[in-house]
Structure to design on (298 residues):
């Protein structure tokens, strides 16, 4: 009989998105684990029977749930769909993970807060979403907590990556197409590079493999505070664009969904628990832009 140690298996749902793609790109660096990557088309988490079948057929030690309905403005008119994917499906996933002794790591959002304060938000701060997307994500958190005592929920903000569609890529395109653009300057937060978030999640799993029992809510974003206007200017700086950026208030750019005006996350808990330093958003932005520049030049 073989005494070979079986590697723990990590399931990554929603693997075609920004975070899922970043986890996939660093998975080779974590050779102690087996990875199963499933996109929404391969395993829609709202299909409870399909999820149950997948878990029955695969021994899964950890599930990183990157699957989500993320169209913030569209959610206002597609409330049922947003709640199906971000709440009901997440609750079912938590229940199935619990039944199979699978540790769930779920990605949530700064939009669970109302943005009415002006000091970095701790995990225990009062929640109060101001849009349907935030409400659906908060409901998902609540369902997880009801169905799994071992789950980890990571709230993050302003996510971007060299993969998928995001603010950084939109700005890079507009800087090449326009001579002048308007960007909101009164919404304050912290950009998060999905590659940094992916690495932090893998560190949580490594610690859990060592016997640490982490559960509950953790905030994670890159270090530093800015506005969308400040974010845009930093992008402009790195590519030396001549495009003029005009700062405008939220009131001048009406959207279907209201946004929190302040959603800076206090990350002291995750830094203390994992004993990590988190890169500044400016340093991580430079890394992402360098990758995109290399891809463009290739």
């Amino acid at each position: 009989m073989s005494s070979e140690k079986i590697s723990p298996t990590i399931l990554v749902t929603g693997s075609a998105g920004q975070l899922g793609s970043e986890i996939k790109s660093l998975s080779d660096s974590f050779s102690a684990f087996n990875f199963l990557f499933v996109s929404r088309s391969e395993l829609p988490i709202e299909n409870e029977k399909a999820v149950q079948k997948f878990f029955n057929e695969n021994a899964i030690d950890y599930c990183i749930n990157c699957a989500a309905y993320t169209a913030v403005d569209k959610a206002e008119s597609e409330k049922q769909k947003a709640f199906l994917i971000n709440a009901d499906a997440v609750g079912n996933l938590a229940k199935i993970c619990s039944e199979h002794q699978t540790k769930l790591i779920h990605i949530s959002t700064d939009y669970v807060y109302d943005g009415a304060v002006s000091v970095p938000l701790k995990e225990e701060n009062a929640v109060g979403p101001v849009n349907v997307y935030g409400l659906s994500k908060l409901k998902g958190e609540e369902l997880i907590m009801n169905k799994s005592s071992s789950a980890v929920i990571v709230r993050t903000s302003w996510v971007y990556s060299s993969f998928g569609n995001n603010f950084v890529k939109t700005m890079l395109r507009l800087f090449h197409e326009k001579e002048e653009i308007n960007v909101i300057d009164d919404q304050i937060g912290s950009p998060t590079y999905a590659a940094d978030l992916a690495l932090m999640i893998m560190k949580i799993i490594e610690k859990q493999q060592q016997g640490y029992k982490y559960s509950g809510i953790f905030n994670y974003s890159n270090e530093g505070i800015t506005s969308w206007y400040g974010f845009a200017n930093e992008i402009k700086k790195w590519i030396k664009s001549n495009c003029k950026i005009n700062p405008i208030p939220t009131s001048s750019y009406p959207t279907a969904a209201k946004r929190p005006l302040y959603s800076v996350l206090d990350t002291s808990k995750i830094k203390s628990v994992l004993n990590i330093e988190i890169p500044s958003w400016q340093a991580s932005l430079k890394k992402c832009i360098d990758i995109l520049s290399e891809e463009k030049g290739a």
Remarks:
- Residues 9-165+191-223+264-279 form a domain with the Rossmann fold fold (CATH 3.40.50.720).
- The chain has a mean pLDDT of 96.
